[in-house]
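ARCHIVE CARD
SHELF: 3
SLOT: left
DATA:
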Amino acid sequence: MADNPVITPAQSFENYYEHSFTYLHNIPMDKRRVGFQYQHPDIRNYLIYNSISNYNLYVNFPVSKKFNLEIRLPFTQFSFKESYGSYIQSNSTTGYGNISFLLQMKPESMNSNIDHFAFGLTFPVFTADFYTFNFRDYIPKNNYCVFGYYSYMERLDRNYIIAVETGPRLWIPTSDAPNPDAEVFLDYGTSAGILFDNFLFNVELIGVFNLSAANDYELLRRNNIISAGLEYRISSFNVGLNYGYMLKSSINKYTKGLFLAKVEIII
């Protein structure tokens, strides 16, 4: 009988970074990554939005030996149907989110400890007139967004990984924006994962804090999500399911959390 194959730490870590995070940014690498995400808010019953669906198409690819470029295009739709006696009101609409470009500096090595920096720009092309419960991809109309982050990942054991990420986010209003003031945010997140065979179980805590808002009712002062998900890798494909629970925030009274499904290919 043949001996069972042994997974070395290096092989385990390589398998890990070819998996994908749900909310944290993925590690830039020499391969191309193309993905699609479907996100559905778990809306509380009394909210007028009966159905909201967010979609996200993204591609990440190397542009040089030191940098990767990631492009994201979100798309969303919502519908509702409310009855008032014999009168029934219904409506549905669709819209694009804000297209974003992210330039990532590749890690110097893919050893047990990995860190990298990134800088991004989001353009104000949001066409929807409703709230999507996705704070990062659907910023208010007539606002540019400049952001950056630092990410650090460490392997604790052969198949156990932790990661942290943080960075600033700045909303810059255009001349047509109803609110002429810029807004400054702090993004932060942490992740812990375990890899077994081709499966990745991952827990993430991510949040954003508005450093400019005077109180909880001015825009969104804080938004925190804790999520758990399972991803399966087969050949060059990653397929995953995730649920993120919305912790106490100014929008927690509207939605309990977010369901998410994703598929991506690494080539």
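SLOT: right
DATA:
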Amino acid sequence: MASTPNDGSGAARIDFLRAESAIVLDVDMNDAKVEQQPHQQQQRQPPNSRRDYVARRMQLWEGNSDAVSDVEMGAISQLPLPLQVAFRCKMLTIFALQLLLVLALVGLCAFYPPVNDVVATAFQLKLGYLIAAAAALVVLLVVLYVIRALFPLNWLVLLLFTGAQAALFAALGVTFDTYVGVFNCGASFCCVVIMLLLAGVRRREPGEPPKLLSSVAAGLIAYVVVALAACALYVRFGRAFVTPEGFAASLAFQFALILWFALDAAFMYRVMSPDEYMHGVIYFYTDMILLTVVCVAAVVAALLSDESSESEGSDSGDENEEDEESEGDEEGKEEDKKDEKEDKKEDKKVKKEDKKYKKHKKHKKGEKRKKNRRDEQLDGSELLASIQAKGSAAFDYLEMQRA
């Protein structure tokens, strides 16, 4: 284990280079023991500081059957607690100083009249400056990641990156006429400071060695403290500073940001080597950009899959429509046949009824004719009887005249 020599001031100083060399030496000795065993060969991985950070994170996310993977062998999480506390304090201190500088620049642009007039005039007249600030932020982050190990160039680029970040927040404040950027920068700075104060807190469980308070727990505690303080200040002064909608949105954004930072820091401690404390700020912003890219790619892939599924659905819909049309045609033909059969039945029925009606009509005509004939016969017989009666009467009259 690395010693903690005293620099004369009475405060213990952690030698990170000696700590990493001790870890690497331990790994070398273990590898030598493994090579001495027959039929067993193991290729030693280079130290973490010489391997790409993104590659280390990807290897950690892929998982490993071993309890401790080769990525974690030289990481901070495997060091003694004093060394872990020293690393966390250094990394969080640098991050807090960077956020403090951003907060100072954004506050200067928002509240110092000479600077505020220049910034307001520039960003109100030309929207391209806002786009240029966002593009410069991304470009400087890429450059910062590439030269992260080149001192003092990395510090200089970090200052430029901080200036671009402050310019972007100031541009957003001028464009939307709000102080939400100042509020969020201040809240983020306070959360990181509280996490820095909680970096050395240990928790003990029965039957287990002491452990440091997790980054997630420290981040949640910091957020609760900052949120309560922000609510108290907002009730007293905030209505003229930030709108209620902006305040609520800022609290939600800060919760997501601090939770992401705490989770990201927990993963950083599992892959970062002791001499990378200055890279924590760079890796944090790099992870944010990578997360944004992954989210955008996922959204684009989801949209493309929806379009392809819609096209497939339209094709299948056309096929289904054709099938339905063919089925409809067949059903229509069957219905037409049924209708034709029913029409034929109805025609036959109508014809039968017509025949019955005609037969009934003929029967009525026949009866009428018979009746007419009977009436005619009766009329003829009555006429004949009347003639006979008249004849007989005339004959009798003649007979009487003769007599």
